[in-house]
Amino acid sequence: MAKWEENIRKVIPYTPGEQPDKSSMIKLNTNENPYPPAPGVTEALQHIDTDKLRLYPDPAVSDLTGAIADFYKVGKDQVFVGVGSDDVLAMSFMTFFNSDKPILFPDITYSFYDVWADMLRIPYERIPLDEKFQICAADYKRENGGVVFPNPNAPTGELLPLDMVEEIIAANKDVIVIVDEAYIDFGGESALPLLEKYDNLLVVQTFSKSRSMAGMRIGFAIGSPVLIKYLNDVKYSFNSYTMDRITIQLGVKAVEDRAYFEETKEKIIRTREWTKTELRRLGFEFGDSKSNFIFARHPKVPAMELFEALKKKDIYVRHFNKPERIADYLRISIGTDAEMKAFVDFLDQYLTDCKIVTA
Ligand code: PMP
C-alpha cells in the first residue's frame, strides 16, 4: 500500500438497486412510482427558458420551499430542500449528529444510515426490531446522540403508529429525532403535526415516491426554524447551489397539483392491497405494508431462487442478503395494475410448476 493511501478516507458505499433500461421490463426493485409526474411538470418542461441556464439558481430555493410550505401549511423558514431525501438526510446527519454518544436506528432499516454514519464517523447503535419487524419505542429510551428511523420502515413497510413516534420524540428531547417519511403518503400518519409540540423533531420526505419524481432528485425536511437554519448553515458550507433551475421549477409544478397527487397515491394503495390478496393466495408471508412496496417471503421457496427466476423474465424485484434475518425476503415495489398482474401470473405459474400451488 502506498504511503498516501493511509490518509485516504475509505468508505464502504451504499449499493443502490439496479437500473436496467429495457423497454419490456417490469421494474419493481427501487420503489419508484409507476405513473408519470403531474401534467404541469411536462408542460413546464416544454417551456424551459434555456437562456436562464447561464445564471446560477436561487441558493435559497425560495419558490420550491414556498410551494412546499404552502402545501403543508408551515412557515417557509421551516422547510429545507435538497437533491433527493438522500441529500437532505446526509446533510442532517452532518448537522445534527455531532456527539460522542451513539445515534440510534433500527437493525433492519434503510441501509444508507450506517453508510453516512461510518463516513462521517458518527458512532451508532442498531436497535433490533422485534420478531414481527416492529420498532419498539421503549428501546429508544437510552442515552444517545440522536435518533433516526423511517416511518414506514424500509425495507419492511411497517408503519409505527403516531403515538409511538411521539413516545420516541418525547423521550429524546435533548437530541434531534429524524423521522424519515419517504413512504408516508401511502397510508401512514405523518409526524408533521408533532412539530407544534417538539422542537427536536425533523421530518424528512421526498418527491421520489408519491410525486413520481425520483429522476428529478428532490427531497425536503420540515422542522423548527432553528433546525432549518442550522441545516442551511451546513449546506452553505458545502455547496450553495444544490438545486438546479429546472428542478426547482418542475418541483413547484409537482407540489401544486394536489388532485393528481391524491389520485396517484390512491391508485397505488389500491394496487398494493390487490397484490397482498394475490400473494396471500400464493402462500407468501408479509406484514401489513403501508408503503409502495411489500416485503414478502415464501415459506417453501428461497427468495434468491424467486429473484433469479423473475429476473430471467425481466421482472426486477429487490433482494437484500444482509442482515441474515431478511435474506429470505423479497422487496416488491408496487407497479401499475397490469405490471402487478403480470408479476402475480408469473409467480402463480412458477409455483404451480414447482407443485407448490395447486389449481
Ligand atoms: N429514505 C428511505 C427510507 C428510502 O427508502 C429512500 C429511497 N431509497 C430514501 C430515503 C431516499 O430517497 P430519495 O433520495 O430518492 O429521496
Automatic annotation (TrEMBL):
Keyword Transferase part of the UniProt annotation: yes
Cofactor(s) named in the record: pyridoxal 5'-phosphate
GO biological process, one term: L-histidine biosynthetic process
Catalytic activity as recorded in UniProt: L-histidinol phosphate + 2-oxoglutarate = 3-(imidazol-4-yl)-2-oxopropyl phosphate + L-glutamate
Signal peptide residue numbers: none
InterPro entries per record: Aminotrans_II_pyridoxalP_BS (IPR001917), Aminotransferase_I/II_large (IPR004839), HisP_aminotrans (IPR005861), PyrdxlP-dep_Trfase (IPR015424), PyrdxlP-dep_Trfase_major (IPR015421), PyrdxlP-dep_Trfase_small (IPR015422)
Pathway annotation from the record: Amino-acid biosynthesis; L-histidine biosynthesis; L-histidine from 5-phospho-alpha-D-ribose 1-diphosphate: step 7/9
Keyword Transferase: yes
GO MF annotation terms: histidinol-phosphate transaminase activity; pyridoxal phosphate binding
Segments passing through the bilayer: none
EC number: 2.6.1.9
Keywords in alphabetical order: Amino-acid biosynthesis, Aminotransferase, Histidine biosynthesis, Pyridoxal phosphate, Transferase
N6-(pyridoxal phosphate)lysine PTM sites in chain numbering: 209
Oligomer status and interactors: Homodimer.
Family as reported in the entry's similarity comment: Belongs to the class-II pyridoxal-phosphate-dependent aminotransferase family. Histidinol-phosphate aminotransferase subfamily.
Protein name listed in UniProt: Histidinol-phosphate aminotransferase
Lineage: Bacteria, Bacillati, Bacillota, Clostridia, Lachnospirales
Gene from which this protein is expressed: hisC
